[in-house]
Amino acid sequence: MLDKGNLFIKNSSEIVTCSGFKAKRGKEMSDLKVIPNGGLVIENGIIKAVGDTRKISENFKEENYQVIDASGKSVLPGFVDSHTHLVFGGYRAEEFCWRLNGTSYMDIMQRGGGILNTVKATRAASKEELYHEGLKRLDSMLSFGVTTVEGKSGYGLDCETEIKQLEVMEKLDSAHPISIVKTFLGAHAVPEEYKGEEDKFIDFIITKVLPIVVERKLAEFCDVFCEKNVFSLEQSRSLLLEAKKRGLKLKLHADEIVQFGGAELAAELGAVSADHLLKASETGIKEISKAGVVATLLPGTAFSLKEPYPKARDMIEKECAVALATDMNPGSCFTESIPLIFALATIYMNMTVEETVTALTINGAAALNREETIGSIDLGKQGDVVILEFPSYQYIPYHIGVSCVEKVIKKGRVVFDKKGKNKLYVD
Ligand code: NIG
Ligand code: FE
Question: Beta 34-43 vs 46-52: how paired, if at all?
Fold first, then answer.
């Protein structure tokens, strides 16, 4: 939908390039490759020049571009939220209150609430309703500086509704400035009609739903909620192997509630990412590091479920590539807030601000297999950037829970401006 823009950003206090074309592991996560007095040129949506403003000005004439004077402001790559469940019907505020009173997430799920509650509402919702709710969530994400987001199905658990969710994401992707990467999560829970027949349900997903998803190119990734009392390692393996055979890339909800061998399975199958990992074993962490699987950590979920945080420091010491994402969903973590993720990662997970920025940019891109085209400010990459209202990236976690994003640029066009009276998609 979006026209591609020609933009010249000059005099920024710094450009935080996060430069690189592959995931950053271990110590590499600390080097943001910052350019002071940064200038940036985007032509036809693609980054054409980045460096000291004086040098850039010698080679590029301002009159050919929309010019932004970013004096006193920091410029970063657009954030990549690489794990969300953004299209769903209904809400579960009541369950949230039950959890505050001590009922566990899994107890609610086993009583037919949780994911199955959202499944009912999503099956009942029209495409239009899902689309309009989705748009609102994307607008909220955009205001936090997100320029690419991953979205999963998984609230249908039948052929029709799984496809409906993926089609809604397709439409949202073409209507909204944020790019959406789609994931098929048909094995998110066992629906009522297959209760006690998990193997039969997996077989249904493999033989009836997956082929349509692949044939109609409705998703790029396949994911499974591999967890005790949900889908076993064997069930997860059989679905993911079939998905891989059919050309989908893999993700896994791994070791979220109990230690279950999900990280090991992600490594065995060569998944692009293993997500959650709150309870991942030492061996599992070593194996995903060795296999080059991105460890996608979702601290908002640990916070909301009052669970211990994933061991980010341990993972970084073991040379993992760590990404961070919101997990935005109606149950375990209902938030689009990037500032919240910054606060939790830096304050509770002991990640440095630099590691956190890397985890939400180039490593988020790597978790979506897009490290060569987005996630950093490098020549030839897509012109997706954010401009902060402060001079340094350090202000992001420092301004606790509040967004410092002043402007969002997608493919060289200003698509959000905080000062434009909250107007979205401004030009
Ligand atoms: O990532 N754990 C499974 N899926 C989501 C929660 C979905 C929901 O509760 O609706 C998660 O936590
Ligand atoms: Fe999730």
Answer: antiparallel
